[in-house]
Write a structure and sequence with these properties.
The chain is mostly helical. It has helices at residues 2-11, 13-28, 36-62, 71-87, 92-119, 125-146, 185-188, 204-222, 224-234, 236-241, 246-272, 285-294, 304-328, 334-356; strands spanning 166-168, 183-184, 201-202, 274-276. The chain has a domain at 36-280: ABC transporter involved in vitamin B12 uptake, BtuC. The chain has 14 helices and four strands. The strands form two sheets. The chain has a two-stranded antiparallel sheet with strand order 1-4. It is found in: Cell membrane. InterPro entries: ABC_transp_permease.
Length: 360
């Protein structure tokens, strides 16, 4: 009983309810006749492809800037680096990492100026960050039309000017991390007579990259710089008495968050198979924010455990809810409706936990 009480106190009743609902969805695929191997594989892919964006949200919280509604700024830097990689036909693992490396300088510059802005509007970071992201996305919508791209695969076919709304990565580095060291039951000939698990696969490379990112972040938080950053975020007044420059710490955290988001969108896009431009990055901060809040973070405290738990809960709920609803309610267009309801419902739930978790 004591162990159960500790588990309840550690996770919280509301979080246990979410975990219970997720377990119900996981089990329900069997009686409903849904292919569990395929749907569980999709859950693993979504965890890996969204993990870095949630990790970027954690750094912003730890440094004291709160929930990073300006995450699309880093995402736009990653899209800029990725579009340059495709412009020059980079491919394979080298092309993917090249896109990430090219994205970093843009993210460093954008993150620095974004940090300067947030340091001047302390207490209103989330509001200012939200409107800043909306403004930058609109500005970059113009930039995608006027930047000198000329690769016929990515520009509009009639005018030859401006990026297309969607850029395919099929000839570049589509699923290059997903297929690295991939464990595929169908290709291996494992359980081919089992209708449930013959389609199961593990995107090993994608999950390894996310695991390495989490490990590096956990190790950084154990260093002197990480402890100072955490102290500055939780209690800036106390850290100031110790001689810590809170503005400098916040700047480092916001720049790091922007860089991680730039790398994260490249990881997301290679797994998705496309880059999406113009208004696509506009709302991408909200799923990352909801995931880390459901994982147990607050606008002042966050950990790698919150990132891992949150991305598992959010992405698995989102992935499983749609096919389960389709099987229960036989209607043609119900899947998209359910996806929107579940995604926005989880985001709304996470937002209600801000004050409940102490984020005043």
């Amino acid at each position: 009983m004591n162990q159960i009480k500790r588990a309840v106190n550690f996770l919280g009743v509301s979080r246990l309810v979410v975990i219970g609902f997720l377990l119900l969805l996981i089990v329900s695929v069997f009686p409903l006749g849904i292919n569990p191997g395929m749907i569980y594989s999709d859950c693993l892919v979504r965890i890996g492809m969204n993990g870095f964006l949630v990790l970027a949200m954690m750094v912003s919280i730890v440094c004291g800037a709160g929930l990073n509604f300006g995450l699309p700024i880093g995402i736009l830097c990653g899209l800029l680096g990725g579009s340059i990689a495709v412009q020059f036909n980079w491919s394979g693992l080298a092309g993917f990492w090249g896109a990430c490396i090219v994205s970093v300088p843009f993210a460093l510059v954008a993150g620095y100026f974004y940090a300067v802005l947030l340091n001047n509007v302390k207490g209103s970071e989330m509001t200012v960050g939200n409107y800043m992201a909306f403004s930058i996305v609109s500005l970059m919508s113009i930039a995608w039309l006027v930047l000198p791209y000329n690769n016929p695969k990515i520009v509009w076919p009639i005018t030859g000017v401006g990026l297309r709304t969607t850029m395919t990565l099929e000839d570049n580095y589509d699923k290059v991390l997903d297929n690295f060291l991939r464990i595929d039951f169908k290709q291996m000939g494992v359980l081919q007579n089992n209708p449930y698990w013959k389609d199961f696969s593990v995107s090993t490379g994608l999950l390894l990259v996310f695991a390495v990112g989490c490990l590096l972040m956990w190790l950084f938080m154990k260093t002197k710089a990480g402890i100072i950053m955490r102290c500055s975020g939780v209690n800036p007044g106390f850290s100031r008495t110790l001689g810590v420059n809170n503005n400098r710490v916040r700047t480092i955290g916001i720049v790091a968050s922007t860089v991680i988001a730039a790398i994260g969108i490249n990881i997301y896009s290679q797994s998705y198979g496309f880059y999406q431009f113009y208004s696509a990055p506009l709302m991408m901060a909200f799923p990352a924010m909801a995931a880390i809040l459901i994982g147990g973070a607050t606008p002042k405290k966050a950990s790698v455990f919150n990132v891992v738990l949150g991305v598992i809960l959010f992405q698995c709920l989102l992935t499983l809810a749609t096919p389960v609803a389709n099987a229960v309610i036989n209607a043609g267009s119900i899947s998209e409706v359910v996806r929107i309801i579940v995604q926005n419902g989880i985001i709304l739930y996470a937002l209600t936990k801000i004050r409940a978790n102490g984020g005043k």
